Amino acid sequence: MIPVTTFKDRQVALFGLGGSGLATAQALVAGGAQVFAWDDNPDSIAKAQAAGINTADLRSLAWSQMAALVLSPGVPLTHPKPHWSVDLARAAGVEIIGDVELFVRERRAYAPDCPFIAITGTNGKSTTTALIAHILRSSGRDTQLGGNIGTAILTLDPPADGRFYVVECSSYQIDLAPTLNPTAGILLNLTPDHLDRHGTMQHYADVKERLVAGSRTAVVGIDDSYSALIADRVERTGVVIKRISKQAPVVEGIYADGSRIFEAVDGKTTLFSDLDGIQTLKGSHNAQNAAAAIAACLAVGVPADEIRQGLRSFPGLKHRMQPVGQREQVVFVNDSKATNAEAAAPALSSYERIYWIAGGLPKEGGIASLAPLFPRIVKAYLIGEAAPAFAVTLGEATAYEISGTLEMALAHAAADAKADPHPSAVMLSPACASFDQFKNFEVRGDAFVSLVAALDGITMLVETGKGN
Description:
Elements: E1 11-15, H1 19-30, E2 34-38, H2 42-50, E3 66-71, H3 84-91, E4 96-97, H4 99-110, E5 116-120, H5 125-138, E6 143-147, E7 164-168, H6 171-175, E8 184-187, H7 195-198, H8 201-213, E9 217-221, H9 225-236, E10 240-245, E11 253-257, E12 260-265, E13 268-274, H10 284-299, H11 304-313, E14 322-327, E15 330-334, H12 341-348, E16 354-359, E17 377-383, H13 387-394, E18 399-404, H14 406-419, E19 424-428, H15 441-453, E20 459-460
Parallel strand pairs: 1-2, 1-3, 3-4, 5-7, 5-8, 6-7, 8-9, 9-10, 10-11, 15-19, 16-17, 16-19, 17-18
Antiparallel strand pairs: 11-12, 12-13, 14-15, 14-20
């Protein structure tokens, strides 16, 4: 835990007592703050009380005595309308911040020079975050991984010289971190997302821009117009900019040409690495993720050879285009996190011959947008509630069967792939939510891994039954 000592002996209001909110409350208490915590969910309040956190309805507080409102990132700050706790804090002139801002202040107070890499973007940020942490850890560095990737940032070890932090940041977290100042800040890309919480695409982009604007070195993907303009604006403020691209060369930064990654310094280009043969970094989207990771690691002083070694040994992000087993020429890929068509597209575009397990609880739009990728699918094995609708969409474009269950789908797909003389992939990339048959996508992915492990002649690439 990181005790939040920067609010020692001060009164702090806190709203939102989910996982990260409860961790934040405990970190504030550990640092000596007097916390008044609340939530709209009575069960969350009860859990906080059981953990020894002082709870109080924030509507009854003397707000003039509060040093800050610490807001959980899931609570609306601006859109569709501010939460009532936000209105109370603003009326009293009380600053509103989140857990990432608390971390930033602790780092500034105790170890301002410890390397801190922050990652944001609409797509790819979790893979990039995990890849950077792997490169650092595999080179023997003390590495702390957290943030939006699933580990509350204030549960990490306290800032110390030589300790590296790799933090995934959502737009909600950035919005609550006004003094965010990474050593290296990454903005991968921007496409419309979370507009219910940001109102407009421009406001969403403005929030994301804050992460790189406060960085010592800003790593910015320039393959979309919003991010390209951000790179230009931030560069004019004097921040060091490293542009990344999966589409075209750059003058200063890292870019991909197929699987080959090039480094450009002062317009001079050299081959940095070739991702060909690295199963966990297949596809142009992963070339962009790798380019960002390389640029950030170079910015914090990691030698090029250590970065290359880390790329080659990257095990992949659990449930995201993750190779989990191999049988002769067939690789088994767990892409359970692909819960809609857009999320399934990167995996489908990364393999030439696919035995595709798809279906579950359908999302709006189905799989029609994936039609350009249907020629890559040798056969589809459809499961769950979406199976009949997916069968209609596939029509005569590719062979399919309605398997019903994941167990039946894998058995048939594995048998068909084994009989195929060509290299292929048996891939779970459902393009659906899991809730008709599984508690969540993690449980679905773990079930797939366990079923793969039970097949004859399989060499497992991950720990059996855990998917990682």
